[in-house]
TrEMBL record:
Gene Ontology terms, MF aspect: ATP binding; DNA-directed DNA polymerase activity; endonuclease activity; nucleic acid binding; peptidase activity; RNA-directed DNA polymerase activity; zinc ion binding
GO biological process assignments: DNA integration; DNA recombination; proteolysis
Domain CCHC-type: 55-70
Entry function: The aspartyl protease (PR) mediates the proteolytic cleavages of the Gag and Gag-Pol polyproteins after assembly of the VLP.
InterPro entries: GAG-pre-integrase_dom, PolX-like_BBD, Retrotran_Ty1/copia-like, RNaseH-like_sf, RNaseH_sf, Znf_CCHC, Znf_CCHC_sf
Record key words, sorted: ATP-binding, DNA integration, DNA recombination, DNA-directed DNA polymerase, Endonuclease, Hydrolase, Magnesium, Metal-binding, Nuclease, Nucleotide-binding, Nucleotidyltransferase, Protease, RNA-directed DNA polymerase, Transferase, Viral release from host cell, Virion maturation, Zinc, Zinc-finger
Keyword set includes Zinc: yes
Organism domain of life: Eukaryota
Gene3D superfamilies reported in the protein's UniProt record: Ribonuclease H-like superfamily/Ribonuclease H (3.30.420.10), Zinc finger, CCHC-type (4.10.60.10)
Residue spans of biased composition, Basic residues class: 23-50
Name of the protein in question: Retrovirus-related Pol polyprotein from transposon TNT 1-94
Region (Disordered): 1-50
Length: 353
């Protein structure tokens, strides 16, 4: 048989168990094959009850792999130089790091969205179900919601990532390169580190470890203050029904329009108190004047809808002396003439007195 290339591949499995399988050269099996009496190289029609290559560990045909005496003996399992680690179950993802840390976030250039299996790290969480994300082995995981994560960087800056998908079946916390670039970030990688910038400001940093770039920062757990709503239906019906009195609301309850338990005595209502209150009227003015022009009353009257006079005036202004009760009247075509007429009146009375 042809030998395979000397390369190994590691696949993460559902149970994390793998078995080794090796191909052996034909010389390892020659002693166990029967030849014909004529001495030619053709195989005999009679075969072992175990079939060709029955054991994948030692190559013998007289037993199965599970009964091999060399099974589970470390380096004695295989004799060939080329071997491959074959998963016994369906693979989930290809990874180079055998250790998974729930608190670590991986900067991934292959994922479409930011993903986390930890709901406790998400703020402004919006729960929904139905969307699916395709994995590397053509399986799908269901998205249960999305939210935001807050990252405290080592330099003291704070970064908030939005639209982080919550997938409980995911085994890693992932930050998407594509999502960061869509938000206006650019990245630069050198010396086993990758740095994301937005403008001139450093946003995120990742350090290389065992084939992956891990986020250098701490995810802040959100703090939520839960408030319980207390519904006061008595106050609500009182407001909805234009501040109706208790007796009228009891009448509606007897007729079945509102529930009886929602009609109770209402305490202080500020709107009702202000609506029923009355302001005191202005007291009559008392002016004690001892001479003319000591106190003067003035008023401007008119409207643009008033029919103009023969001279085209639509307004007039009056000046009344409180002591002598003398009245001066000036007619105006527009309201902006009021100050001009006041100056004329002032000059007039100053000349007369």
């Amino acid at each position: 048989g042809k030998s395979k290339s000397a390369s190994d591949g590691l696949y993460v499995e559902n149970r994390g168990r793998y078995e080794k399988r090796s191909d052996h050269k034909s010389k390892n099996h020659g002693n166990h094959r029967s030849k014909s009496k004529t001495g030619n190289k053709n195989r005999s029609k009679s075969r072992s009850k175990f079939g060709p290559k029955a054991c994948w560990i030692c190559g013998d045909e007289d037993h199965w792999k599970k009964d091999c005496p060399k099974r589970n003996k470390g380096g004695q399992q295989t004799k060939s130089h080329s071997s491959a680690n074959v998963a016994t179950k369906d693979t989930i993802a290809l990874t180079a790091s055998p250790i998974v840390h729930e608190d670590q976030w991986v900067l991934d250039s292959g994922c479409t969205f930011h993903i986390t299996p930890r709901k406790d790290l998400l703020s402004d969480f919006e729960e929904f179900e139905g969307n699916k994300v395709m994995m590397g082995n053509n399986t799908h995981c269901t998205v249960k919601g999305q939210g935001k994560i807050t990252i405290d960087n080592p330099d003291g800056s704070v970064v908030i990532l939005s639209n982080v998908r919550y997938i409980p079946d995911m085994g890693r916390n992932l930050i998407s390169y594509g999502q960061l670039e869509q938000s206006g970030c650019r990245y630069n990688g050198e010396d086993y580190s990758v740095v994301f910038y937005k403008g001139d400001k450093r946003v995120l940093t990742g350090k290389y470890d065992q084939g992956l770039y891990y986020l250098q920062g701490i995810i802040r757990k959100p703090e939520a203050n839960a408030a319980k709503e207390i519904k006061d239906m008595t106050k609500r019906w009182h407001s909805r029904l234009a501040h109706m009195s208790l007796r009228s609301r009891e009448t509606l309850a007897k007729k079945g329009y509102i529930k009886t338990e929602e009609v109770k005595h209402l305490g202080f209502c500020e709107a009702c108190t202000l609506g029923k209150s009355h302001k005191k009227s202005f007291p009559k003015a008392k002016h004690i004047t001892k001479g003319i022009l000591e106190y003067v009353h003035s008023d401007l009257w008119g409207s643009q809808n008033t029919t103009p006079s023969l001279s085209g005036a639509q307004y007039f202004i009056t000046f009344i002396d409180d002591y002598s009760k003398k009245v001066w009247i000036y007619f105006l075509k527009t309201k902006n003439e009021a100050f001009q007429k006041f100056e004329e009146w002032k000059l007039l009375v100053e000349n007369q007195t």
